[in-house]
Amino acid sequence: MKVHYDKEQDILYFAFRDGPSHEVIESTPNIILELDENKEIMGLEIWNAKKIGLLEQVAKLTASS
User: Fold this and answer.
1) Rounded CA separation 55/7 (Å)
2) SS3 57
3) Per residue in 11-58, pLDDT tens?
4) Residue among 36, 59, 63 at smallest CA distance from 16
5) To which H or E segment does residue 41 belong?
6) In the prediction, which pLDDT does 35 show?
């Protein structure tokens, strides 16, 4: 799994595997799911990650692993 944070857009992205996505679903206004051809989750975008306090929580998790 890869984790990327875009400071300018305040978007936290989790890539579970590489490859092209075939479908994008807006689960909630701040959660975007990327699905492959088998409808399996390939990626997860969380918008406003810093604003909602999630960025700090993820930083703690990645620092401890």
Assistant:
1) 10
2) helix
3) 999 999 999 999 999 999 999 999 999 999 999 999 999 999 888 887
4) 36
5) strand 41-47
6) 98
| Token duo for residue 50 | 């810093």
Pairing state between β 11-15 and 23-28: unpaired
Give the position of tokens 């479908």. 23
pLDDT at 58: 79
Note the Cα 51 to chain centre separation in Å: 15
Domain count for the chain: 1
Task: Please report, as a single letter, which amino acid is at residue 1.
Answer: M
- In Å, what is the CA distance from 47 to each residue of 2, 8, 9, 30, 57? 17, 11, 8, 5, 15
| Residue 52 belongs to domain spanning | 2-64
Two structure tokens written together for 59: 């930083």
